[in-house]
């Protein structure tokens, strides 16, 4: 529905622009109720020229826009591939850190037991 409303709005803006532009260029005398033959001819030519130019511009725009869309799509795909590669690299680093931590934990010797008092005492002289 929003798309249709936007199309109607665009059409009305274009219609108002054409009307304003052609009226200002073609109508010289506001004292008569009817348009003169010259004013009618001028208005017809004005509208015809405007619509022809508008159609040509739209054709060019459509061609250029498809190229722009293809470039944007390629850029988005490149960015996504870069993000995936970075995520994989971070995951590998985390895996390596976890493996290193596990290896370090396995390599740490058990804490030595405290020596008993009989082993640490000096021999007595008899």
TrEMBL record:
Membrane-topology annotation of the record: Peripheral membrane protein
Gene3D superfamilies in the cross-refs: Mitochondrial import inner membrane translocase subunit tim13 like domains
Domain Tim10-like: 6-61
GO molecular function, one term: metal ion binding
Domain of life: Eukaryota
One Gene Ontology cellular component: mitochondrial intermembrane space chaperone complex
Keywords, alphabetical: Chaperone, Disulfide bond, Membrane, Metal-binding, Mitochondrion, Mitochondrion inner membrane, Protein transport, Translocation, Transport, Zinc
Predominant cellular place of this UniProt entry's protein: mitochondrion
GO biological process, alphabetically ordered: protein insertion into mitochondrial inner membrane; protein transport
Localisation per UniProt entry: Mitochondrion inner membrane
PANTHER family per the UniProt record, alphabetical: MITOCHONDRIAL IMPORT INNER MEMBRANE TRANSLOCASE SUBUNIT TIM9B (PTHR13172)
Family membership: Belongs to the small Tim family.
Chain's role: Mitochondrial intermembrane chaperone that participates in the import and insertion of some multi-pass transmembrane proteins into the mitochondrial inner membrane. Also required for the transfer of beta-barrel precursors from the TOM complex to the sorting and assembly machinery (SAM complex) of the outer membrane. Acts as a chaperone-like protein that protects the hydrophobic precursors from aggregation and guide them through the mitochondrial intermembrane space.
Quaternary context: Heterohexamer.
Domain notes: The twin CX3C motif contains 4 conserved Cys residues that form 2 disulfide bonds in the mitochondrial intermembrane space.
Protein name, UniProt field: Mitochondrial import inner membrane translocase subunit
């Amino acid at each position: 529905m929003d798309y249709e409303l936007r199309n109607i709005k665009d059409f009305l803006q274009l219609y108002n622009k054409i009307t304003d532009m052609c009226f200002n260029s073609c109508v010289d005398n506001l004292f008569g109720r009817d348009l003169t033959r010259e004013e009618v001819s001028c208005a017809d030519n004005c509208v015809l020229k405007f619509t022809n130019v508008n159609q040509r511009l739209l054709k060019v725009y459509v061609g250029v826009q498809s190229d722009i869309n293809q470039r944007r799509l390629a850029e988005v795909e490149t960015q996504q591939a870069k993000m995936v590669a970075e995520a994989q690299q971070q995951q590998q680093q985390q895996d390596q850190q976890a493996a290193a931590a596990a290896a370090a934990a396995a390599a740490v010797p058990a804490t030595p037991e405290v020596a008993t008092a009989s082993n640490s005492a000096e021999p007595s002289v008899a």
